[in-house]
What does this fold into?
Amino acid sequence: MPSETLLFHLSDIHFGLEDQRALDWVRSEIEARRPDAIAITGDLTMRARHREFAAASHWIGSLDLPVTVEVGNHDMPYFNLFERFFRPYRRFHQIERLVEREIDLPDIALVPLKTAVPAQPRFNWSKGWVTERALRKCLATIDALPSGTKALVAVHHPLREVGTRGTALTRHGQRALEELARRPVLAVLSGHVHDAFDLVQQTESGPVRMVGAGTLSRRLRSTPPSFNELRWDGERLEVCVRNLENVDTPDMQISDVPEDAMPPREPGEPVAPVNRIPPTDPPVH
It folds into this structure.
């Protein structure tokens, strides 16, 4: 039986509107617990400004642990369209080696799947899009893993296609889920929503577990700043939502992915309550 693997799943730090108290707390947890790896599922910055990337890169670079970083929709230039279209990831240069990085651990691997694109044929470019190229790369990585190794797939946008075809949260997300269901995938780790969740999505190929992390920014939706602590003992993946207010994990997790999936408020506005139901026990692959 392999020893237990401890992973921290962070998301939506939004440097430029970060919660410094939350970041100091997470850093202390990382230093005390020394997880085997850290997955950051996108939106490092608020407006992809140079100073925001500098702060994000400094903070991430100081963690001194294996880290993989996904690109979020907030991490592409907002005001420089030439750079957005032709060099959208240029501002990641200080931590380029960490972006979409595969991390291999005993019996488990973190595998990236890009969902943020510079542009797409619909008005709202903040939503997710799984390109054929990105999906092929992800599946090839999973297929090349040693026999018996499980995968945790890291994305920014939840792959659930909430909404109509024109306004779907993540275009081609359902197809990606169907392909992942055919493979030894423990869960898909995502961000974007700013509230944690732990759901099972049914596909024609079988169920896929979807685990979302909350935010470490001041741009809250309905729960306090948080991150996910993941424990894998070789048979079961357990998720604990660590948060500043010590709220129990079931009360931190929303019961469904919201259709707009956008934090609806700016700092200072009241927090809207959400309807939660106790999560069901997800299947173990």
Remarks:
- DSSP finds six helices and 13 strands in the chain.
